[in-house]
Amino acid sequence: MKVEPFSLPLESPLETASGTIEERNGFVVRADHRGETGIGEATPLPGWTESLGDCQTALDSATSLRDLDAAEVPAARHGVATAMLDADARADGVPLYQWFDADSADRRCRSVPVNATIGDGTPSETADAIAEAVESGFDCCKLKVGARSVEEDVERVRAVRERVGDDVTLRADANGAWTRPEAESAFESFESLAVEYVEQPLAADDLAGHAALRGGSVGVALDESLVQKRVGTVFDADAADVLILKPMVLGGPGDAYTLAMQARERGIEPVVTTTVDAVVARLAAVHVAAAIPDVAACGLATGDRLARDLAPDPTTVSEGRISVPQSDGLGVDPSEVQTDA
Ligand SMILES: O=C(O)CCC(=O)c1ccccc1C(=O)O
Ligand SMILES: [Mg+2]
Which parts of the sequence are annotated with region: Disordered (predicted)? Predict the structure, then answer.
């Protein structure tokens, strides 16, 4: 196994209620498996995964995937798991999304729907950013809330709704910022603004609070709660309409795919997102989404936030969809991946 560090600045930092993401540091992993060299990416995100140092330590000492615990070092595990899956899918001559479910291996998925991701900002900045996204083809936009008062966030969503009309699906992501009364007030206002769902309105450990918010027209999506709680506990709490699945946070593409299928069985809609990663991990997330039949719009259109990348991006985003590479494996040529770009 070969592990190389990289550091990539963001061209447009993402402002959220739990801080601003300004750069992404991680490791490219190359692993020989079944006669192929697969490529993976471990890009830890402080607060969501292990630290960069712990990720490096785990990668340096691991000899196989089994040495890497999804709950302890999810990003390191993601890096190795992705490299193995890339090699597996190459060895079997299929794009990675087809490799996840052998029973429907001839199902073609050429693109998946995506949402635009809009950070915090004033009402007019937010309306401008969403109008621009809609102009470039997105019909589903997610905006970050919770960094300012609920009144201001409601004003932002109202400004957006007035600007883009009723045909655009709007989602919000509070990143755990609200108290129960704040969330109740936001949900009440968001009903008339036709917000589809709110991601993580309350603190990650407040499953009962999330369960109590459900039942109206605004859905509850859990994201950070999956980091904090066992998935069985989340399912048992009946606290979510939607589960946000981040392969980097969950220990790899295979773990995320398995969770997506478990969610579907329970009537919970899976939504796959990146953690604003480099191209290798973004592709892994695209393949997870493509493996889910009729997947809802996913948070995969984050590539253009990076100022530079590890390799050319084979995907394109247009008309609110991201293309899915159809070549074997992830769809990136390992010889084109450079960590010193
Ligand atoms: O879901 C999206 O649209 C993009 C991904 C995203 O918002 C995100 C990116 C990095 C860290 C956390 C989050 C999040 O969903 O909270
Ligand atoms: Mg979220």
Answer: 311-341
Active site residue 144: yes
Model ipTM over 0.95 = yes
CA-nearest of 12, 218, 193, 217 to 117 is 12
The mean pLDDT of 22-26, rounded to a whole number, is 97
CA-based nearest residue to 201, from 242, 167, 168: 242
Which amino acid residue places its CA nearest to atom 4 of ligand 1?
299
CA of 274 to the centre of ligand 1 (A): 7
Listing from the earlier edge strand, what are the strands of the sheet with 36-42? 2-16, 19-33, 36-42
The top-level CATH class assigned to 2-93 is: alpha beta
Q: Which CATH topology does 111-336 take?
A: TIM Barrel (3.20.20)
pTM above 0.80, yes or no: yes
Domain spans of the chain, in order of start: 2-93, 111-336
Phi, psi values for residue 82, rounded to 5°? -65, -40
Report residue 340's pLDDT band, with 50, 70 and 90 as the boundaries: confident
pLDDT at 102 > cutoff 90: no
Would residue 142 show up in a list of annotated catalytic residues for this protein? no
Distance 272 CA to ligand 1 centre (A): 10
Q: Encoding tokens for residue 26?
A: 């991680």
